[in-house]
Design brief:
The chain has 1 helix and 13 strands, in the order H-E-E-E-E-E-E-E-E-E-E-E-E-E. By secondary structure, it is mainly beta.
Length: 191
């Protein structure tokens, strides 16, 4: 009887683990540097020069998890930075998923001290924004805050994109957003 109980627990644990998608370098661990892509991530917008922080542009907040985190900006010319990566396994169509990440902003980001939003997209091709799965409020907190993201897919997706956002590139706005500690993407029950 005990063997059946242990086997059941192992089977349930294996199913739970197989239902999650873990990003490559979800806490943006790398050598701090300006205008540098963190390992495992790709540029998804012209002019994207993300920063691996702390230590550059006057940003010295400690990481929420690990040693480093990501900084993305929007610029006065209306452009914005975005990065993405290929997921290790596809997200299924018509499924419910959830994950969390930690967000903050810096009021010392070398002239980019305004609050902006984060948009998260999924797509089936590199850097293709097929479905927006999250748009934050303006991130004004200087301390890390965890955001829970729950979404239903409308397509089978192989990529995730993180986009700094203000307003459709038609307004000048020099702002920043700090991102750290992205959890695995897991199945959730439908609401």
């Amino acid at each position: 009887m005990r063997t059946v109980g242990i086997a059941s627990i192992l089977l349930i644990s294996a199913f739970a683990l197989s239902g999650q998608v873990t990003l490559t370098n979800p806490s943006f661990e790398d050598e701090p540097a300006d205008a540098t892509m963190p390992m495992g991530w790709l540029k998804c917008a012209k002019g994207t020069t993300p920063d691996i922080l702390p230590g550059y542009w006057g940003v010295y907040e400690e990481a929420q998890e690990g040693d480093t985190y990501l900084g993305l900006i929007t610029r006065g010319d209306g452009s914005a930075e975005s990065i993405g990566q290929r997921l290790p396994s596809k997200l299924a169509k018509d499924a419910c998923y959830r994950f969390s990440l930690d967000l903050a902003m810096s009021d010392n980001y070398s002239g980019y001290g305004n609050a902006i939003k984060l948009r998260v997209w999924i797509g089936n091709k590199k850097c293709k924004k097929d479905q927006m799965i999250f748009e934050s409020e303006f991130i004004e907190n200087l301390d890390w805050e965890t955001q829970l993201i729950e979404f239903n897919t409308t397509l089978e997706a192989r990529y995730i994109i993180l986009e700094a956002y203000y307003k459709d590139g038609s307004f000048s706005h020099k702002g920043n957003i700090l991102i750290d500690n992205i959890s695995p993407i897991v199945y959730c029950s439908r609401v």
